[in-house]
């Protein structure tokens, strides 16, 4: 497991000793540090087409069009025949997140969802597997007879993006295929709010079952909100779910406003902390916020410039490390904010997946803490029941850097890890 920041390790294999056993590809709950993600498995196809192409398939320009599997297959065949396809990407907000986690950590994660039982060359399932890290354990996916989801992005000459979405069997995940032992041994469970849209589909109960297992085994639970419209349409049910089962909530500023009615991200985060332990809020060109709790006895004051917004001096304690509110005897709220890395990229090639990248960095830090605690339980790093290895401010830096990498490439997933970062003075403080 790579820790955030620079860690110098020596690897050697004495010739006098037997050759080491090759590591298992499958996750072993009693030995490995890993996270679990539950998602709707979907492949994104990007193609450049004419307006006539949209008319041919009765696709409404500029909108998200729900199509059946046969229509999606016909569209795909025509795109392939005309040579219009520019890219295939494995999609899904949680699929993106755990792929990025495995790239950053160079370690295992587990994906829960569905996968086509019979995978053929060029099928959606084929492209999904090709574009997902080999460190992602897919052995717990549920086999289905049909295709996984396919989202086709059709770009016309005027730059307008039109979407044709075929769900396939991506929502057929049954609760019986949720492995309790795998969730119980994980460092965190991460899922998204999208299954709430599908009242008649089994994936909703599967998600609730996974969250209940995590809650029962005291595994930190992480939820992403999906889209502003999803939050608006399912607000009451979503709030009830968050209050009962969620420790970490990730969102953008529009989703935060839909949930709280507050347009100021800082105020929205402050209100959401009444329900959860950590809030990760990305605010586009305004940067990102990481907010949560620590105990008053272990709070640490920042040496960065003090910031004020709707909350005065809100980042004063950002060198503190996150804790569950229930683990604090005297909990205090902690807020940290960071501007876009290097002012943001000169040219943004892709915004899809930037928030997923930020979340994967936070998950990496949470799992690093889990790993370190298992390895060195008597370390001063664990004098209090911290949830993450680094401080709010340090995690902000890490998440911000990962988001930047997504923004400057033309894909929603990392293709490689980040360069190792020099440890900051603040990290050195925590090593004392």
From TrEMBL:
Residue ranges constituting the Carbohydrate kinase PfkB domain according to the UniProt record: 135-303
A Gene Ontology biological process term: IMP salvage
Enzyme class: transferase
A Pfam family of this chain: PfkB
Molecular function in Gene Ontology: ATP binding; guanosine kinase activity; inosine kinase activity
Keywords attached to this entry: ATP-binding, Kinase, Magnesium, Nucleotide-binding, Purine salvage, Transferase
Alphabetized SUPFAM superfamilies for the sequence: Ribokinase-like (SSF53613)
Annotated binding of ATP, by residue: 282-287, 355, 400
Pathway entry: Purine metabolism; IMP biosynthesis via salvage pathway; IMP from inosine: step 1/1; Purine metabolism; GMP biosynthesis via salvage pathway
Superkingdom assignment: Bacteria
Obligatory cofactor(s): Mg(2+)
Residue stretches in coiled coil: none
Keyword Magnesium: yes
Positions contributing to GMP binding: 39-44, 92-96, 197
Cross-referenced InterPro entries: Carb_kinase_PfkB-like (IPR052700), IngK (IPR046405), PfkB_dom (IPR011611), Ribokinase-like (IPR029056)
EC number per UniProt: 2.7.1.73
Gene3D superfamilies in the record: 3.40.1190.20
Catalytic activities: guanosine + ATP = GMP + ADP + H(+); inosine + ATP = IMP + ADP + H(+)
Function: Catalyzes the phosphorylation of guanosine and inosine to GMP and IMP, respectively.
PANTHER family listed in its UniProt record: CARBOHYDRATE KINASE PFKB DOMAIN-CONTAINING PROTEIN, SUGAR KINASE
UniProt cross-references to HAMAP family, sorted A to Z: Gua_Ino_kinase
Family the entry assigns: Belongs to the carbohydrate kinase PfkB family.
The protein's name in its UniProt record: Guanosine-inosine kinase
């Amino acid at each position: 497991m790579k820790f955030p920041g620079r860690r110098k390790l020596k690897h050697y294999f004495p010739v006098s000793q037997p050759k080491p056993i090759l590591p298992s590809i499958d996750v072993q709950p009693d030995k490995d540090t890993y996270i679990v993600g539950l998602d709707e498995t979907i492949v994104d196809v990007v193609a450049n087409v004419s307006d006539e192409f949209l008319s041919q398939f009765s696709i409404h320009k500029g909108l998200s069009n729900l199509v059946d599997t046969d229509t999606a297959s016909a569209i795909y065949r025509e795109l392939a025949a005309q040579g219009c396809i520019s890219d295939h990407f494995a999609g899904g907000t949680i699929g993106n997140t755990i792929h990025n986690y495995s790239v950053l950590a160079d370690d295992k994660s587990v994906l829960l969802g569905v996968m086509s039982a019979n995978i053929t060359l060029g099928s959606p399932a084929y492209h999904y597997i090709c574009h997902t890290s080999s460190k992602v354990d897919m052995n717990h996916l549920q086999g289905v007879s049909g295709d996984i989801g396919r989202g086709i992005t059709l770009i016309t000459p005027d730059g307008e993006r039109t979407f044709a979405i075929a769900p396939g069997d991506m929502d057929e995940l049954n609760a019986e295929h949720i492995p309790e032992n795998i969730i119980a041994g994980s460092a965190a469970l991460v899922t998204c709010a999208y299954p709430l849209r599908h009242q008649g589909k089994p994936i909703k109960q599967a998600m609730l079952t996974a969250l209940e297992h995590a809650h029962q085994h005291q595994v930190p639970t992480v939820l992403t909100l999906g889209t502003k419209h999803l939050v608006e349409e399912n607000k009451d049910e979503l709030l009830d779910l968050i209050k009962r089962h969620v420790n970490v909530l990730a969102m953008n500023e529009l989703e935060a406003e839909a949930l709280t009615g507050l347009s100021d991200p800082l105020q929205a985060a402050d209100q959401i902390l009444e329900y959860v332990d950590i809030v990760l809020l990305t605010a586009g060109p305004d940067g990102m916020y990481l907010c949560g709790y620590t105990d008053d006895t272990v709070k640490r004051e920042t040496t960065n410039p003090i910031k004020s917004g709707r909350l005065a001096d809100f980042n004063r304690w950002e060198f503190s490390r996150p804790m569950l509110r229930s683990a604090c005897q005297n909990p205090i709220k902690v807020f940290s904010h960071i501007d876009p890395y290097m002012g943001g990229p000169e040219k943004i090639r892709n915004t899809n997946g930037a928030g997923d990248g930020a979340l994967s960095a936070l998950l990496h830090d949470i799992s690093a803490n889990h790993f370190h605690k298992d390895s060195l339980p008597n370390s001063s790093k664990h004098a209090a029941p911290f949830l993450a290895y680094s401080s709010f401010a340090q995690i902000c830096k890490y998440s911000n850097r990962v988001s930047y990498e997504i923004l400057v490439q033309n894909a929603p997933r990392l293709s490689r890890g980040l360069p190792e970062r020099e440890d900051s003075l603040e990290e050195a403080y925590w090593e004392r």
